[in-house]
Amino acid sequence: MTTLPRSEIRPNRKGWFKPYIAGTWQLYAMMLIPIIYIICFKYKPMLHVVIAFKKYNAFNPNLSVWDMPWVGFRWFEEAFRDSLFWKSLANTLILNLGDLILGFPFPILLAIFLNELTSNKVRKATQLALYLPNFLSWVIIAGISAQLFANYMVNVGGGLVNNIIVSLGGTNVPFLENPSWWRFVYWIMGIWQSAGYSLIIYLAALMSNDPSLSEAAYIDGATRMQRIWHVTVPQIMPTISTLLIMQVGKVVSISFDRPYMMSNANVTDASQVISTFVYDRAFTGHRFDYAAAIGLFQSVVGIILILIANQGSKKMGQEGII
Which partner from 74, 159, 253, 286 sits 20 to 30 angstroms from 34, CA to CA? Predict the structure, then answer.
């Protein structure tokens, strides 16, 4: 039995770089555009997070950010002593946890329901109807919520829901005036607006499922609910865990337009969130340094929550995102 020389078993890798670049330089050239964009418009502005540790002067355009006086953690300490900050943080957590508990499972259930339908026409029509609200801005959705849930007034009328309640002999419900009812409307409109987008992701995950597993379970005598719980759901669990981790990371962050547009003077105690609090401090009080400190606090807490959720996902047998 003859053995081959080592040089023939492991080919010489010298001189591989030039032929490789000659065949792939076009791909690297195309990568330069998004890389340059990310560096210039994503990473370079992050350097100005130093504003959170400086006394920022917005009325002196000739003074560079780097030349402004350093104050350390002064703005963080001021925020932690501000009762309105803690109230805004509590409202943010309540609204986001409500979205997580009520809104996160909803598109999963919809996707499983549509996946079980045998009619393609009904499935496509339902999917289209659920996805269309995703294109509406929160200005429009806030107007729709006012038309639906406004108080009933004699000789004037009100929202559709209260009109139906009063016509059936019930009493007027202050959906948009009572903080508890306002949160309910906030969550319902959020589910209606965002469920269609998540639905597409889950339907795509369901389309990649192996149908032979469900067929084998059917032959073994499993009911439809047993096949869904023990076959369908485990196959899309990686997608569910990934989206859940991303959602958990946003618990302390909240968009500005949704609570701002749906809010009114009667529910300020429930609608004052971190984003509106930062807006008031930055653009009304010209406290850009203070607002930057709060924004940095949100980002750090969000990263910590993502890491915790990722570790929890791995301990439960999922891959996680990191």
Answer: 253
Q: Residue 279 burial by CB count (10 A; 0-12/13-18/19+): exposed, middle or buried?
A: middle
CATH of region 75-315, choose from 3.40.190.10, 1.10.3720.10, 3.40.1110.10, 3.40.50.2000: 1.10.3720.10
> Given pLDDT bands bounded at 50, 70 and 90, which one contains residue 152?
low
Confidence check: pLDDT of 9 > 80: no
Please give the Cα distance from 203 to 112 (Å, whole number). Answer: 8
**pTM of the predicted model as reported, rounded to 2 decimal places:** 0.84
Q: Which of 281, 276, 282, 280 is nearest to 260 (CA)?
A: 276
pLDDT tier for residue 119 given thresholds of 50, 70 and 90: confident
Would you state the pLDDT for residue 14? Answer: 65
Cα 238 from Cα 108, distance rounded (Å): 13
Could you tell me if 71 and 57 are in contact, meaning their C-beta atoms sit under 8 angstroms apart? no
Q: If DSSP codes are grouped into helix, strand and coil, which group holds residue 70?
A: strand
Contact between 156 and 149 (Cβ < 8 Å): no
The 3-state DSSP class for residue 170 equals coil
| Burial status of residue 118 (CB atoms within 10 A of its CB: 0-12, 13-18, 19 or more) | exposed
DSSP at 136: S
Cα–Cα distance, 191 to 98 (Å, whole number): 10
Encode burial over 201-226: b for 16+ CB neighbours within 10 A, e otherwise: bbbebbeeeeeeebeebeeeebeeee
In this structure, how many other beta carbons lie within 10 angstroms of the beta carbon of residue 265? Answer: 7
Query: Does residue 254 sit in helix, strand or coil?
Result: coil
